[in-house]
Design goal:
The termini are far apart. A 6-stranded mixed β-sheet has the order 6-7-8-3-9-10. A 4-stranded antiparallel β-sheet has the order 2-1-4-5, with helices on one face. Helix 3 packs across helix 4, helix 3 packs parallel to helix 6 and helix 4 crosses helix 6. The protein folds into 2 domains: 203 residues, Rossmann fold (3-Layer(aba) Sandwich); 41 residues, no CATH class. Helix content is 41%, strand content 22%. It has 287 residues and is of the alpha/beta class. Strand 1 and strand 2 form a beta hairpin.
Length: 287
């Protein structure tokens, strides 16, 4: 099963003097269990694209297909699609309303008709997944939490519903570096243990290089690249043409290579860089 877009256009203010093509001829495929990055400069169509994945927006032309279900405005179809695809928007904590963390995370489950036992089990499992201690957090007000804790609550509220595709629009915005790493590591663990597909919209190329195995690059509302993250960041000219920056690990790898190192540039996520640097020191005559 998968998510597929076929020749999708989306026009804002269609037929009006200021109509604007936010998406133009988008075709892409996202497999089950993938960790996919969606990147592009500001205004490239990233947010517009992901809002098509669970029927918040509907294509002007073309088809969006989720697990063989063509997304449409029909109520029963929308219910099925939204049961499968959950979206966590940037700064989701701005939409909190419940009095306790438990009630916040449980809200979606109850909307889907979970029994009390199912709600309890889903909330507990989701909070554990995002690293929130149950005894400490369940009865707290979400408005008492730190920014990182609030973001985890928002992600838990989507995870609790058991959706198989989780779309996150800049989930680490405003978080400190340690919390960013923890949140993304928890999402990767969820992907591995529950075969959840994670779709990450991000402007942070270091995060994309570290966690995303595949990347979709948007440029002016079109797909400029879809494929291996390593392949994209290894093409410096393409990265430059799409208005993006190389991750720090790739920039460092290239600098070392220019100094005579044997480090392979297309194997340079931050985690792999640490091991590679030890070899580089030896290659360059270090200790």
């Amino acid at each position: 099963m998968s998510i597929d877009l076929k020749n999708v256009d989306y026009v804002y203010d269609s037929g009006e003097p200021f109509e604007y093509f936010a998406l133009r001829g988008i075709s892409l495929h996202i497999d089950d269990g993938a960790f996919v990055g969606i990147v592009g400069r500001t205004g490239s169509g990233k947010s517009t694209l992901v809002e098509h994945l669970n029927g918040l927006l509907f294509s002007t032309r073309g088809e969006v297909i989720v697990d063989d279900e063509i997304v449409s405005k029909e109520r029963t179809v929308l219910a099925k699609v939204r049961r499968r695809v959950g979206i966590v928007f940037q700064y989701p904590e701005d939409q909190f309303f419940a009095e306790t963390v438990f009630e916040e995370v449980a809200f979606g489950c109850r909307n889907y008709g979970f029994s009390k036992e199912q709600v309890d089990e889903s909330v507990h499992k989701a909070m554990s997944t995002v690293g929130l201690d149950l005894e400490r957090f369940l009865s707290l007000s979400p408005f008492q939490l730190s920014g990182g804790e609030q973001r985890r609550v928002a992600i838990a509220s989507v995870i609790a519903m058991g959706q198989k595709y989780i779309v996150l629009d800049e989930p680490t915005a405003g978080l400190d570096s340690g919390t960013k790493l923890a949140v993304l590591t928890e999402l990767e663990a969820l992907r591995q243990t529950a075969n959840v597909t994670v779709i990450l919209v991000s402007h942070n190329m270091d995060e994309v290089a570290e966690f995303c195995k595949e990347v979709v690059v948007l440029d002016g509302g079109t797909v400029a690249f879809q494929g291996s993250t390593d392949a994209f960041f290894s093409d410096v000219d393409l990265v430059d043409r799409t208005g993006l920056e190389l991750p720090e690990s790739y920039r460092l790898a290239r600098a070392l290579k220019e100094c005579g190192s044997s480090l392979t540039v297309n194997e340079c996520s931050t985690s792999r860089m640490l091991d590679s640097l030890r070899l580089c020191v030896s290659d360059l005559g270090g200790a």
